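[agent] plan:
  1. take the single chain provided in the ticket
  2. run structure prediction with default settings
  3. attach structure tokens to the ticket
  4. add a short note for the reviewer (M.T.)
[agent] executing step 1
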Amino acid sequence: MPPAKKRTRSYDSAKIRAAVLTQFGHVRDGVRTLSEEQLARPARLGDWSVRELAAHITTAVESVSRNLDRDEPPKPELGLLEWPFATAARAGDIADGTRELAGRNPDLDALYARTEQRFTERLADAPDGRLLAARTGAMTLADYLVTRTVELVAHTDDLNRAAGTEIPFDRQALAACTRLLADALAVKAPGASTEVRIPPYAVVQCVAGPRHTRGTPPNVVETDPLTWIRLATGRVAWPTALEDADVSASGERADLGGLLPLMG
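[agent] step 2 finished; step 3 output follows
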């Protein structure tokens, strides 16, 4: 795992809490409208169906409630900028648990309703500094909630693409997700020779090489938030994004293909 030398960006806790709940509500409203035909479609995430994907999305929020019910670990083990690199090891467990969850909960709206109620109740009096025994490593509640924006936004996009829905993105959730993954790139490839622009939410400098100080940077990558999230999470490959003109890259150090994806 690359060392997190970059200073962690600060996030407004109240806004992040509201963003997680709002995005979850958007997904619940969208899932409620899905037909059986849509639910049976492939989710394009392994061999999951859209139904299994919809069930899995609840775990992004339920994991907060579940960890608040557990004993608090003695010390933090994972910083926010380390989290994206710690997710790959959990892929097998997630797949097995998702199939079981979907099988136990044929009524998806009831599952969403229970999850939302538990989350709201558990979060009401939980302080930001409360440590959670997350599977990736113990983290503060404040940091863990920021990671929930990544899970919710990425999977909302998955659901829209697989089921043909148009579930909206909460602006604060989309911004936090974009910024966390952009900052993770700067951790993985420290330096200041390349500027990565993801308007309107993030600009980071990364990649070792000559440091740029003024004027137009010699190495520039620019893309939109959803394309960036797809690249960072492995939904879209770098050559495909370039070929489809979803990302522009200029300069000899602007090829990020060897650095992506950031998450497994």
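[agent] step 4 note for reviewer: The longest helix spans residues 141-163.
[agent] ticket updated
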